[in-house]
Amino acid sequence: MSNEDQQLEPGQIEPPAGEIRFLFLAERDLFARRAERFRLLASGHSLADYLGFLALLADAQQEALDRFPSLPPPTPEEQSLCREHGMPLLAARSWRRNPAWREGLALILRRMAGAEVPAAAREAAAGLLATAECRLDDLADKILAGDQAAVPPPELPFVAAALQAYWVHMATALGEHAFARLEAGGVCPVCGSAPASGIVHANGSKQGLRYLSCSLCATQWHMVRLKCSSCEATEGIGYYSLEGTNGAVKAESCPDCNAYLKLLYLEKDGRMEATADDLATLALDMLMAEAGKVRGGPNLFLHPGGEVEEA
Ligand SMILES: [Zn+2]
Ligand SMILES: [Zn+2]
C-alpha cells in the first residue's frame, strides 16, 4: 500500500460552487449497467464467484425496478416540512416505505432462488420467500438504520438489493428538482445515507469534480475534493492505493476521525461503477483495516462480520 501526496489544494481547480450541478439521480438502467460491470470484473478475479453472484442479483434488481408500479410520493406537507428542516425527502431511517417494496423483494427472491448461484444463497432466497412480512420489514429497518450486522449474512444482499431498487424507483419518479442541498455534505440529499464510495469524473462539466455515490439510492452529490466525507476535516488527508495497480481506486483517509472512503478516478478507467468497483477492491479495505482505519460509508452488500470467500 502506498501513500501519495495530495494532488490539489481546496478550490484550486474547481469552479465556484454555484456553477456546479450538485446532484445527479441514478439512471433507470443503473442495475443493468452494474450487472455488466460485475461480469467484467469477475473475469479472472479471485472473487469471481462472488462478483458473478452480484451480477445476477443486479439483473434481478433491474427487473424489479422496471416492474415497480407508480407509487404515491411524499405528500406536499411532508415535502415542505423536509425543506423547512433541511431533511432528506426520502429519509432511509424515517420515511415510511410503501409495502410495494416487498413486491420488488419477492421478484428478486424468485429470480435468485432459481438462479445458478451457490446452494446457500438459493436456500436463503427460498427461505425469505416464505418469511412473514413483519420480519422482512424488521430486516429492512435494520439495514436502513445502518445495523447490517444484525441481519443474517446470507439474507443481507437480497433485502439490501430490494431496498436499493425501491429507493432508486422513488427518487427517479420524483425527479432532481424535488431535492435540495443538505447542511451535512457527507450524506445523501435524497435519502440521508452515507456514500458507498466517491467518483472523480473525467468528462464534460463534471471533469475533475468529486461526487459521492449513495450506498442506498445511488444518487451522486457533489463534495469538494480533499475533504473527509465523514467529518468534513480538510487537514492531513492521505491517499492510499494498492501497489501494482494503476491507481484508479484510492482510499481517501482522514487522520481526524480515522475514516476512509474509496475514490474511483474515471480518467484511469471510465467503466468503473461505484458499488461494483468498491466490492472488487476489498483487498484495499483489508489493508486499510490492518492500518486501523474504518470505512466512512457502508456497501450494503458487505456484511460487517462476514467473510467473502475467494474462488
Ligand atoms: Zn441516497
Ligand atoms: Zn474525518
UniProtKB/TrEMBL annotation:
One of its GO terms (cellular component) is cytosol. One of its GO terms (molecular function) is ferric iron binding. Residues 22-181 form the FdhE N-terminal domain. CDD domains: FdhE (cd16341). It is found in: Cytoplasm. It holds the Pfam family FdhE_central. Residues 226-302 form the FdhE C-terminal domain. Its main location: cytoplasm. InterPro entries: FdhE-like_sf, FdhE_C, FdhE_central, FdhE_N, Formate_DH_accessory. Residues 187-225 form the FdhE central domain. It comes from the Bacteria. GO terms for biological process: protein maturation. Keywords: Cytoplasm. NCBIfam families: FdhE. Necessary for formate dehydrogenase activity. Belongs to the FdhE family. This is Protein FdhE homolog.
